[in-house]
């Protein structure tokens, strides 16, 4: 039952849309509205966790992209792995370099290409902050057993594949 006094934000929103525009089928909000809401809440929590270290979530995404890599990355590789714009990557990497968390160097193969890598301090921040962010994520899935988590992950994988296809069209 969709009611405006339901404790769930998405259910309340759907009820209000049903009243405001009864001809609309708001069923996609049942899933995507929740995905977006959970994402926004997760990102907000991560921003709070990272504020202690004086870095933003986007800056942390850049650091994590470099930490996952077995080699220095080109800025374009960081851009594609973080879903940031090229301009944002440039701005963020400039700041991260200025505070000593990453280093830039020229490619040995092509001197025009700038390579990015973490400094020891950058590694330390990832090693310190990533577990805190993962603990926060675990809190969001608290109450789901292993089978439910697996089912949810598989269903979201399908939704994600559809989103990737739609983004290319």
UniProtKB/TrEMBL annotation:
Record-linked SMART domains: HTH_MARR
Protein name per UniProt: MarR family transcriptional regulator
Highest taxon of the lineage: Bacteria
Organism: Brevibacterium picturae
InterPro entries xrefs: HTH_MarR-typ, MarR/SlyA-like, WH-like_DNA-bd_sf, WH_DNA-bd_sf
Pfam families in UniProt: MarR
Residue ranges the record marks as coiled coil: none
PANTHER family membership: TRANSCRIPTIONAL REGULATOR, MARR FAMILY (PTHR33164), TRANSCRIPTIONAL REGULATORY PROTEIN (PTHR33164:SF104)
Domain HTH marR-type: 25-161
Classification via SUPFAM superfamilies: Winged helix' DNA-binding domain
